Amino acid sequence: MNTYTNILLSIVSMLFLAACSDKTREENLNLSAYLKDSSLGIKTGGVKMIEISTPKGKFKVWTKRIGNNPKMKLLLLNGGPGATHEYFECMESFLPQEGIEFIYYDQLGTGNSDNPNDPVFWDLNRYVEEVEQVRIALGLDKSNFYLLGHSWGGILASQYALKYQQNLKGLIISNMMMSAIDYDKYADTVLAKQMDPKVLARIREIEKNKDFENPEYMQLLIPNFYTKHILRLDADKWPEPVNRSFSKINQSLYVTMQGPSEFGLSGKLEKWDIKKELPKLVVPTLSIGAEYDTMDPNHMKWIASQVKNGTYLYCPNGSHMSMYDDQDIYMKGLIKFIKDTDDKSIK
């Protein structure tokens, strides 16, 4: 009896080892396919400079691809306006192991892209056309193209989707309300009231005098607003990619679009509002909100109910940069949305 038992155990063991070996081989093949650089010509580590056409000539914008997946390609639109792709570097700790290809992209006037130094280029509709040109150059289409816009990038992503959603497989609106008017109201009636009245009064005084270069302005904002609603960590503990990105903000672009104040919008985007247009969006859409964000989390939840195929991700411990201060929930939710959307498209 023991002989038969030993033989059976040996067979089971061999089958188990063979299965493990097959699984390891499959994982290695998947990893090899993900890491393979299939670009032609001289290899650049995934970097591609893309020529774009504008009403005032041609310029080049910088992109960099991480990974290779023909079904899941995520293009990242950073915020600011005027910051850089660099604060998205946290994605490298999460997306590659899930096989999700993602693409960094510095919008015109930012980071490694050309900077024409002319405010006429800082225009939402022009940026929409820029994204479309980038999409075409990268070979993205409705079979693989996911677009994530964070903050100002959320405005750009949603506006792009309203015009070009036929090219999208999935849309992610991260930490951005769909109305500058509602955002202003939330900043004034909710966020401002959470601040020490004396501090708020001094901030308002500086803003009234348009004394934005006064070092006291940031000295008040950092501990009383930034570390409470932008990224909920002590300022000296902010992640290096965030600091690096924010240190490179194109101030001309930022002020032209956003305005100089940190409480609401006063630039070109002051009256931006697409709430009534949201039902036109039929592409699978994920809206991401956070409890301590500068954006109303209830509004972010509402977005998911207005689009035709919406999902809401709530980050209970997060703020505006919830990909850092509520990282586990943010990344798991983002990955789940992309994979669920991919699974549904197969069926």
From TrEMBL:
Entry keywords, A to Z: Hydrolase
Domain AB hydrolase-1: 74-326
Gene3D superfamilies, alphabetized: alpha/beta hydrolase (3.40.50.1820)
Molecular function as annotated in GO: hydrolase activity
InterPro entries: AB_hydrolase_1, AB_hydrolase_fold, AB_hydrolase_sf, Peptidase_S33, Pro_imino_pep
Keyword Hydrolase: yes
Pfam families reported for this sequence: Abhydrolase_1 (PF00561)
Family: Belongs to the peptidase S33 family.
Protein name: Proline iminopeptidase-family hydrolase
The organism of origin for this protein: Flavobacterium humidisoli
